[in-house]
Structure prediction request, 255 residues.
Amino acid sequence: MSSSEKKIALVTGASRGIGRATALALAGDGLKVLVHYGRSAVEAEAVVEAIRANGGEAEALGADLASEDGAKTLAEKVRTIVGSRLDVLVLNAGVSKAARIEDYTTADLETLYATNVRGPFFLVQQLLPLLGEGSSIVVVTSVVARGVVGKPALENPSILAYASTKGALETLVKNWAAILGPRGVRVNAVAPGIIDTDMSNFTKTEAGRETALSMQALKRIGKPDDVADVVTFLASEKARWITGASIPADGGSKL
Ligand code: NAD
Prediction:
């Protein structure tokens, strides 16, 4: 396939974790991948190099999605590279926070909502002119959008504010799917359970691992590739009749 025929994907937060695995998987499917990063330029360039070493095409591009003009800045960089069309947009970048209810600050909520909700909202807005018939948006949400995990108690840290940002994203997925469907653009969510990445506290301690395994039907800790494969499926033509859906990738959590 010549370079001009290659489909192009943008993956936000692709320097590590689920985003990195997704960038590599999409490149493995033959797409050119725009590897977005917030601060980790060196890691993002390493992902680009890994893709190129396998014969793929990739470019790294940075933007702080939590800043007020972050989405606009990123969209401008994307337009410069892709011209008029983006085939796949993976909204993966996100931050988490665990704290007791009484310890949350307004700054915590601002960071969580700016990164996890406002950034994706305005990135879709800014990239709309590039999304057309056959384009696909995949949003990485979470099992916590629909169920409470951990040991809920006033004295225990909880990720309730983070969970609410993922609930907001799941609502946006349905609305985007309904609004963009007539244009031929599909929009879906992948809702991971506990995945072994830098973000996940659950995978770092024996107690955390036990909590994770106790709520899962499948008895191992999830890996970034377990999510990336579902994202690439949803982004592909094989998922052409799926839109507005949220697919769990959680080893059967909280069944
Ligand atoms: P991670 O911390 O390794 O990756 C998060 C990525 O988002 C990083 O690349 C980071 O640079 C980027 N990012 C954060 N803030 C940013 C900003 N302001 N501007 C630009 N980029 C920014 O964690 P991960 O587990 O790979 O998380 C990826 C996605 O998966 C997140 O949306 C997360 O909420 C979701 N998720 C993770 C788990 C899990 O257990 N790890 C479970 C469910 C959902």
Observations:
- The chain has one domain: 3-249.
